[in-house]
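Try this one yourself first.
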């Protein structure tokens, strides 16, 4: 075996070992129940692609991160604002992986690249502490103003809310407002 082949083999082994370590760490976090406590920055680091720093023309910058309910956090802990209308329209929930392309003219272009596992719940729309919230059982989730206005929801309306399936969250994405004549749906899930 030539030295060049040995170097290539060693590089493949190291790359494979790094990938296996990331998978093992994720499994440990899940088994230990600490998955919800993993920071958004660490999650962003896990989705980073090797070629996302610069495009071929060098005029735009690509950053990957995790949505926290209001903004995207990259692997360095840097936060980037996510427009409410985009988050609402895309029904983003905390934990979703996003790619941000910053164009040469400064425009921010977001794209959802990895949705987190989700579930739907039904709750009542409220307004407290100067923000809209959806109360589901004993838990309340913050809802974006853009979602409330888009669906023309009113305080007291029953809404379907999308939340992360496995992780605890303070935010949810409004999926729909239920008609007022639908009164027999359960909003008392105990979380």
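Now uncover the answer:
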């Amino acid at each position: 075996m030539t030295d060049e082949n040995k170097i290539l083999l060693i590089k493949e082994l190291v790359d494979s070992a790094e990938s296996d370590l990331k998978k093992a760490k994720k499994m440990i976090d899940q088994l230990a129940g600490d998955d919800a406590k993993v920071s958004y920055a660490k999650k962003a680091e896990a989705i980073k692609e090797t070629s996302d720093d610069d495009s071929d023309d060098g005029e735009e910058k690509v950053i990957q991160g995790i949505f926290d309910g209001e903004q995207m956090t990259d692997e360095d802990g840097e936060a980037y604002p996510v427009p409410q209308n985009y988050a609402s329209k895309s029904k983003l929930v905390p934990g979703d992986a996003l790619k941000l392309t910053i164009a040469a003219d400064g425009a921010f272009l977001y794209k959802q690249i990895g949705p987190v596992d989700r579930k739907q719940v039904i709750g009542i729309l409220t307004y407290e502490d100067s923000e809209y919230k959806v109360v589901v059982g004993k838990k309340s989730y913050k809802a974006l103003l853009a979602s409330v206005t888009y669906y023309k929801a009113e305080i007291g309306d029953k809404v379907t809310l999308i939340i992360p399936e496995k992780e605890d969250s303070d935010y949810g994405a409004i999926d729909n407002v239920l008609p007022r004549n639908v009164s027999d749906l359960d909003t008392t899930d105990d979380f």
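Discussion: The first strand starts at residue 61 and ends at 67. Helices lie at 3-32, 40-47, 84-89, 145-150.
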